[in-house]
């Protein structure tokens, strides 16, 4: 479990009043759920950093691990395993022994928002943690943004102008700090069931991430 150091992650953070209230309601309704800010998962020195949107109510918010427990994680962990970034193709629970290799998963907003929609203020408020996380990351990393909100959160965390880096599926940007930013549509249930994001499209992005990392060796 990532330490709650108050810099990269704070398990007791209540800086977003609407989200803190929502978590308190969730704890009452589902006492066995995790219901707190969700820590990044994976290697602190990883060179592939996946950035998602926010915790899902019955997923990360229930289990305490990003993309675990709901539909969004199915394709993600399957793909991570296929490209050698995960020890198994399925993430079941925070204590299932799954390991990530040279990879970390984090979210733009650490708490679950109602209807999976954080406000722009909440995205800005939580960006302090992503900024601290990216500041501590190795210089040469691949930042894989899952969706346009994550893309924007990465740019904000790195103080880069959004007008210069437009989100598009499979877009790739060399950033001034040495990182590569890769974009993908989010692997949400909606996107996969409508085939806006197919398995082949998602795998192509991970194949590119793998080849970028291999070139950095
Ligand atoms: S979303 Fe982020 S900033 Fe807002 S309360 Fe949760 S951890 Fe704190």
Automatic annotation (TrEMBL):
Pfam families: UDG (PF03167). GO terms for molecular function: 4 iron, 4 sulfur cluster binding; DNA-deoxyinosine glycosylase activity; metal ion binding; uracil DNA N-glycosylase activity. The keyword Repeat does not apply. The keyword DNA-binding does not apply. GO terms for biological process: base-excision repair. InterPro entries: UDG_Type-4/5, UdgB-like, Uracil-DNA_glycosylase-like, Uracil-DNA_glycosylase-like_sf. It comes from the Bacteria. Belongs to the uracil-DNA glycosylase (UDG) superfamily. Type 5 (UDGb) family. This is Type-5 uracil-DNA glycosylase. It comes from Steroidobacter denitrificans.
